[in-house]
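Q: Can I borrow your eye for a moment on a structure tokenisation matter? Would you mind producing a protein record, from residues through to fold? Write it directly below this note and I will take it from there.
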Amino acid sequence: MSTKQQLSIVSIVGNNTSDCGYCNQDDTSYTFGIWAHALSCTDYQALIDRGWRRSGKYVYKPDLRRSCCPQYTIRLDATEFKTTKSQRKILHKFNRYIHGDWQPSQERPGDQVMKDGKTDSKKPPHKKEPAKETTLLETIHAGEQEKSKAEEPSGHSFKVVLEPSSFTKEKYEIYRKYQQEIHHDPPHKITAEGFKRFLVDSPLDQESHGDVEYGSYHQKYILDGTLVAVAILDILPHCVSSVYFMYDPHYAFLGLGNYSALREISLVQEFHTSSEDLKYYYMGYYIHSCEKMKYKAKYHPSDLLDPDTYDWYSYNDVCKSRLDQHKYTSFANNSPDKSSSSSSSASATETHTKDQSSTLPSGWMDPKSIDEQNDLDQVLIIAGKSQVVPVTMLVKFHESSEFRDEIKDYVASLGLDLAHRLIIA
């Protein structure tokens, strides 16, 4: 395990109101943000387990109670994952394409696809021998091969490369095509600098932990020597967190969006063999009212993070029925059946009354309950060029009520433990 202690240094951005990117309403998305100059992977794991998420170096926490489209953190226990029939079809279709047994232009409903790529709609389908049951890892790796087209004319070479996040023209070109053709972004809004800020820049440094290197990565999909897709991933102490996925729209027929999720689940399973604590796959946020997000809950068994207590609850057993009835809900209320694995609940000092919670952002401490002497004495800030001191030592803290309120909001959003670990720049 790495003995290097990485410091987490952040600047307070504060409250933000913006247009919703899901339902397109104006000024209905509420967040609290920090800018992370440097962030240890351990601290970022703690942040996402409190509902935070990063976009480049900007780290934000949505206010689920006030926002039009509440965003619940979703995770999957990859060690318990079982593929469904439709998910197995996605994998087998991809592998058949790689091995030259299937071409998209040749398949029609009712046609039997022959091994040479031709179809025969007259010949009745023969009974198949029962397929040998294979694991997700075996099925995923069955699609990787180095054969060239010259060696196997109807087949393809395919490999996946995991590398630290970096900018290349190849990756940017995939991003440009994907944003323009899939998300319909105006061409003038797609820039190399925007791509770097969003999907290359990261506050996470590489950290060695046994056989696993934590940090921010790009997982490249290379088909016949050409880059066709990139997954942006954070590898953390307990999980692989999916940041973004983009692909060349020319290869949309391969179902790469669904394939990539299965591929990333298998990556967690591989890491788990050498790091038993690393067993979860985080897919970002789940929004029940957004149809495009519903696919995330189809990977079982999935849990959602309670926005108030920060415990995990089973999507199928608890969360779905609640969200069918309420746009925003705390799964902890009237629900004794928690997920078997949960994060530490908010401490007694971080809880608040029901009346107070109705006006506070979801999951926040009550800023009024924060003790300036005991709680804020341990909040550190960089003074001058390099000196780190308690925030209460600053003259500004005692002279400016606005600054004190900003610090209290920062602590209330993070919780005491994280607020005492991060250093304010």
Summary: Residues 108-121, 344-356 have pLDDT under 50 and may be disordered.
